[in-house]
Design a protein that fits this description.
The chain is an alpha+beta fold. The protein is built from 6 helices and 15 strands. GO terms for molecular function: protein serine/threonine phosphatase activity.
């Protein structure tokens, strides 16, 4: 899902997934005209779930509260004890880039060709995650929470959130997101948001190298996404490259300089994040 300052948020009517028979109703909520939003989610187990955080950005932007409240609301809406989903979202506001992540969908930045991970994969073995899981009464076996879930944070998965004596952020599995805010600079080239179907096949640096090489001869970001999928897809059923894949590629353009702005008074204001955005494309494979 991508919403930019020059586009309207998509209308999301009640939808269904024929493969799982689950119906979700997503209202349309206006998005700020000065912000750009990109978000991916990765459903695990049974439920079909989409539309992570299409919401209004208040003025002034309390981004931390926005991300936290959105994840909490989505978390309480998922039905069933074993329904769950990861989510990774980015808001670009002027020259600020804000990343929220719960789960193992990942956001990376290409900074002069170097991969910078802007989110952290919430795996049970991580020190902070392991401490919370054990303190809440859970255990980790073979890299999985209570021997089943390979994530320490997720929206849904309510069977891991049943301790009424603990707040949401201290449950065995929590939807509480990590928040990371950076300031964009001239050597920032593009960001990629993708679910673990991509990261199981390519490292962050490998993906940056691959995308940069494609950008030498290809300007259509959709084609580059397709080439990433072709690179990752398994030749046969089973093994690495068989997971579902979702990817958003957002390319940045150089900011308007003061000299060029003086030559053309019609150029957009520096207050808008649109000046940073060259293009974005989202593709999905599988379910």
């Amino acid at each position: 899902m991508v919403v930019t300052p020059s586009s309207s948020p998509p209308q999301l009517p009640p939808g269904c997934c024929p493969k799982c028979g689950s119906v979700v109703d997503h209202p349309r909520i206006p998005f700020s005209s000065e912000d750009a939003l990109a978000a991916v989610n990765d459903v695990h187990r049974i439920v079909f779930w989409e539309g992570f955080m299409i919401c209004a950005v208040p003025q002034p932007p309390p981004s931390l509260l926005l991300f936290h409240s959105s994840l909490r609301e989505d978390d309480s809406d998922l039905e069933g004890p074993s329904s769950g989903c990861t989510a990774c979202a980015v808001i670009i506001r002027a020259n600020k880039l804000i990343v929220a992540n719960a789960g193992d969908s990942r956001c990376i930045l290409s900074k002069g060709g170097q991969a910078v991970e802007l989110s952290r994969d919430h795996k049970p073995e991580l020190e902070g995650e392991q401490e919370r899981i054990l303190k809440a009464g859970g255990f980790i076996h073979d890299g999985r929470v209570n021997g089943t879930l390979n994530l320490a944070r997720a929206i849904g998965d309510m069977q891991f959130k049943q301790n009424k004596l603990l707040p949401a952020e201290e449950q065995i599995v929590t939807a509480n997101p990590d928040i990371n805010t950076i300031e964009l600079s001239d050597d920032d080239e593009f960001i990629v948001l993708a679910c673990d179907g991509i990261w199981d096949c390519m490292s962050s640096q490998e993906l940056v190298d691959f995308v940069r090489e494609q950008l030498r001869t290809e300007t259509r970001l959709s084609v580059i996404c397709e080439k990433v999928f072709d690179r990752c897809l398994a030749p046969a059923v089973g093994g690495e490259g068989c997971d579902n894949m979702t990817m958003i590629l957002v390319q940045f353009k150089k900011p308007v300089t003061s000299s060029s702005a003086a030559e053309d008074q019609s150029l957009p204001s520096h207050k808008s994040s649109e000046k940073w955005l060259k293009g974005s494309h989202e593709l999905n494979i599988g379910f």
